[in-house]
Fold this sequence. Notes:
The chain has 468 residues and is an alpha/beta fold. It has two domains: 35-69 and 323-467, Aspartate Aminotransferase, domain 1 (Alpha-Beta Complex); 74-320, 3-Layer(aba) Sandwich (Aspartate Aminotransferase, domain 2), CATH 3.40.640. Helix content is 46%, strand content 15%. The longest helix has 22 residues, at 323-344.
Amino acid sequence: MPINLKEIVANRLGENYDLHDKYVNRTLVKVLRTIGFDKVYARAQGAYLYDKEGNDYLDFLSGYAVYSIGRNHPAIQQAIKDVLEMDLPNMVQLDCALMSGLLAEALVKRTGPERDAVFLCNSGTEANEGALKFARCATGRDKILALEGSYHGLSYGSLSVTNNANFQRGFGPLLPGAGFVKYNDLADLEEKLKGKDVAAFIVEHVQGKGVNIPADDYFPKAQELCRQYGTLFISDEVQTGLGRTGKMFAYQHWNLDPDIVTLAKALSGGYVPCAAFVTRRDIYQKVFSTLDRCVVHSSTFGRNNLAMACGLATLSVIDDENLVENAAKRGEQLLNRLRELQKKHDIIKEVRGKGMMLAIEFQQPRGLKAMMAWKALHAVDKGLFPQIVTSQLLDKHRILSQVAGHNTDVVKILPPLTIGDKEIDRFIAALDDVLENIASISGPMLEFGTNLVKAAMSTGYNKRAQEK
């Protein structure tokens, strides 16, 4: 008898957190329960999630930018159905499947004729791992540089160029030859390139952790320095690509010409993991240089038909629904509305970002009561305040957002590229209300911070022991 998934889900929906506590990541379960994110979502559509009671939750997290075209888009569903109905041969491996060739062609059309070779894989970290390998092989060099504050993934190569001690602690030694460049500092970059031993400089044009953007001339001049010293320039577009920043690719804001571009997240349409990196043919052939090296770098599930169909359908939706243009338009609208809030709330230090990748950074407020609460929270943990904001947005207004990084006072939003006036109005009104309450009442801030710290201590986590 075939499994009846509809019956199983109907009967067991609500056991989510107990099952994960027992069999998966119980520490994550504890965190979600502590901050009030332990919601049980029953269905999803477009920019919204829904619980069993039918309450809607505005999704301004988008699965960390996976759902750029919205959740459960009918065009992606239809593409998957079409592939299943055709009974196509899949992952024969010793063949060249049509679907993967079609997606590679579609990606090359969008990244430009300079990059005419594609490697297909499953995730952002895998795409970045591949880019690092290809860069080393093509240049014969072993060093890799990334920016301070970078995030490129959590497998060993990508983790080695992720400049975050919280993710790296306990997993060393990491990839030899990996190093970091001071953010927005061209002199430091040139000093580290001068030895002509750096294979690649990998960058996020808008950093995922913190939503940081350097000076306008930084990336063009950084690319020039890479060309001068024979270093490949890698654009990590895993989060920023496919319209997220108001351009098809973030590097287009600076008219850049990267040697390798990595993609993932939104390419999946939210259904089947799909990723790729696109590069020049001469770089590609340095890896697959002889007949016996034709599969020297490969990915078992990388070219599977379902993923390829999702990728093709996603690109079609982005084009047909003018989502790149909508991201630019609505992103500018959000920025302007947030800057109006900044005039009203002195606790907002800065609003920044591009397109639908935005950050709200907070600072110590002037009011005495709020100032005391701010200081008390930061004495306990430097990252508590933005967690209060995101928790209040979810609890009071059913809006999902995220803290932008460790030990920062930054809330980040990644709305679907499909949103309009209704979603923007709802978010702005909700954030305004949350900041009004936080500014006038110190008790809830302190209570939340105390509960979170108690929960962390109850896990038995000993930070000092971890650091030794």
